[in-house]
Amino acid sequence: MNDWLNFSSNAFIAAFFLYCAAFIGYAIAVAGKRWSNRDPEGHAKRWGRIGFALAALGWLAHLAFFFTRWKGGGHIPTSNMYEFMTFLGMAIMFAFIIVYLIYRKVLLGAFAVPLVIIIIAYASVFPSEVQPLIPALNSIWLKIHVTTAALGEAFFAVGFAAALVHLIRVVDYSRTDKAGRRAQFWTEFMLVVIVVVIGFLVSVFGFRAAGYEAQFRQETFRIDLQGQGETIVQTVEYGLPPIVAPYNSEKLSMDPFLGLKEPLFEAPSWMNGVNAGRKLNTIIWSLISGLILYGIMRLIARKPLAAVIHPHLDGIDPDDLDEISYRAIAIGFPVFTLGALIFAMIWAQIAWSRFWGWDPKEVWALITWLFYSAYLHLRLSRGWQGTRSAWLAVVGFIIVLFTLIGVNLVIAGLHSYAGV
Amino acid sequence: MFQNTKCECGHQNPTGTVLCEACGNPLVDDLPPDSPLEMRYDGAARRSQKQNPDLIDRVWNFFSSVKVAVWLIVITLIGAALGTIYPQESSFVNLDDPAQYYKDTYGTWGMIYHFLGLSRTYESWWFIGLLVMIGTSLVICSLDRVLPLYKALSKQQVRKHLNFLRRQQTVYETTLQTEPAEWVEKFARELKRKRYRVWIDRKDGMALLAEKNRFSRWGPYINHIGLIVFLLAVLARAVPAWHMDKYVSLDEGQIKQIPDTPYYVKNEKFTVEFYSDDELPERLKGTLRPKLYETKATLYTCTADCDDPVKDPVLVPVKQHNIQVNSPLSYKGLKLYQYNYEERIRLISVKPMLVDKTNNRSYGPFELPMTDPPLTYKAGPYTLKLSDVYPDFGLDEQNRPMTKSRDPNNPAFVFVVTGPGLAAGGEMYIYFPMPSAENKKLQDQLNESFRKLGSNSGRFAFEVNGMENVSFSQYTSTLNVRVDRAMPYIWVGAAISMIGLVMGFYWQHRRIWLRIDGRALTLGAHTNKNTYGIRAEVAAALGRTGIAVEPKALDNRRNKR
Ligand code: HEM
Fold first, then answer.
1. Based on the domain organization, do B451 and B412 belong to the same domain?
2. Residues lining ligand 1, Cβ inside 6 A
């Protein structure tokens, strides 16, 4: 590894910890307002400023990571999952800084910064070494397309963060009617999903730190395009203790974990995609650890998590949050259109001889775009502002994430691709 | 709904008007009383709100509804998503029996998927129908609104009704401490500094209208025009003459006509490179990671004898390009893309010697190209006449020579040698230029059987002296040939669309109205987006005229809560 790359990975670690520190600063700003002997306004302002300064420093370290990796690796680091997700994190931070400079709402940082932390932690799940470019990726349009698309998505992410704050801000725990309960349930559900994602990260990094390994030999039967059946034998490696073994597989080796010496069951036969069993196992682990984590938090708090956060948000006007969320999406929409659709079409035209080929990734970019255009049109009529619009912003960002990650993991999972 | 369209200010409005065209007073009673006015299209009447609609009006009304548009968008979105569950048929190069394939590969669900036609979602009538409906909706919806909006914005009255001002999103009321005329001048100056255009009506008490960035209101419509151009261009790609999508496979050194065009393309050389181990990270060492695929290509155009079966076409080179994956050859709308390659050794030409085994003398060499070989050759005093060519040599059931295909996989040549000391009819020999033990054996056996039949005396053999006398192709490169005459319109549509989006989203149309009745100042302001920004701007301008007010206090929604 050369010096540039060494420096780069140190900068990445620095960025990560600075973001974590920034989050703590923001959390104190938001949660500490009611601490005794304090002027709440002054407190929030001071800690908010500290949080922002740390986040900005973290972003500078992140930029340093990016450019030194570019220099050391010889090409722009946006060509695999690790590089793309770290870039997305950087872009979200940039979008947050822009929106913060317009609206100066401390609270936004308390939600946008942890989102960035989760995203770059997720990036680190993937192999981080620099890989030389294959001919299909060796194009200036790779740089242009990927960076602008990610920037558009980053603004959607900030719109999502603001929408989430909005939802927690307006959820009303005194209501017992059906609609009120539904709002309470779904708001809490969103937080559970986020905790499950954290559970995923905790289990992957926990077992990786412990050096856990298991191996299976899997036979898959496949029919190729000529109609010939063929059997492929491959080794599947697990980094998490196998609760589920791959379909039609045989254990080669397995570290015991808490008395678990054998997989508990085998993946169903329709899950025969490459690494489908391992992906199912990862999902199960994420759910288990996420739900345990959530259970512990509930035990400590003794009320729904949204109800814990809710009272700290009363300093901000829901209409402002609605506006911030909408504005972030409105800023992002043209950028996304340009990056994810137009530049993608230009590149596809040059590299693959057709500007559009209905490839799943392309289709999902189109779906994302159609969804946000529906969001914008719905906002033109006043019924779709506030809470409804906030839910759309949340769903929109879920679609963005599915396009970025899910398509590779689930749909392309039928074909191939990276994954944990 | 019966509606009185004559406003109290005396202006006669068309039916369907929501806010009086002149003074802005609300004309319909069923507006929610305590929320800001709905300012879409400035409350102007639209065609789709006509009474007693006929059939055309009904179709118009259907497509002019944004609600219908959103439904169309959402249905298209869901349809597009369904198409990604399993791979589309079009993603396979050749799929003989799709039904069987989906059933075998994806089981019952695959069978249902194929049966429902979802394996061809994007070519299906319903999907294309949805796109056409979106296009129709775009046109009608935009026309229905842009004309009234244009009219409303180009004849604005400065003095507005108090109801209109008090029911904007941004509102401020106060009693002036200073001389109204003087204050208005000062306020107008502040707004001009913020690049507002300002009109002042001094007739009965002061009234003011300030406006900026009106052009951004046209953004959505320009965007829609761009989308229409784009959609039309997409549909135009179905015109056969506008579109070509063919594949040409070329050995190195080979030249071929591009079907249905006067163009010929030659593959001068194909290169494939892989990364070496020291360029690869630990985990990938030992794997073949491609670095470069490149076809050195020359494009020719035929200038004469193009369709003459007897004469060779006259070719003139017009373009030379090293075609790589991200760098096609492009000439007058014709594009050649690197598509695929195959490692396949093929001879291009050889220069054998004719060896006389009786005295071990060799004659020649003579040049023998594998494609379109000439009919006669000279080797020393001897003349060779080509009597038969088998590009892909094989034996049929009766052990007779034949060619398995027209591809030069293993060519064989049958020559008749004439010259001094030979019978007048000459002697017949077969020659396999591809060097392999099997060919050598076959060649000897066949020549031996010719001898037994009396066709030759066994005197001659062929020999190639060294690799410098062999030129061969290692790779066959497949190029994708494309013509897409709709592309320029696609890009123009996309560019128009982008311009519209930028106009609509990065600028906002802002208007501020105020009137002073006695000393009572009433101010209302409206923007189509970013109310935060306009509040800040109004508060700042007021502040500079000596009226200190928090931006937040101007928010009409807040005051009503
Ligand atoms: C299905 C057909 C469509 C119809 C009928 C339609 C109709 C409309 C209408 C009436 C407006 C309001 C313009 C105004 O403010 O006066 C609008 C705005 C807009 N439309 Fe469409 N539209 C359609 C499709 C699309 C699509 C596919 C896009 C994709 C980008 C799009 C993008 C926009 C944007 C960005 C705006 C501005 C929204 C805003 O100002 O917040 N439209 N559309």
1. yes
2. A 373, 376-377, 379-380; B 66, 69, 72-73, 134, 137-138, 141, 145, 220, 223-224, 227, 501, 504
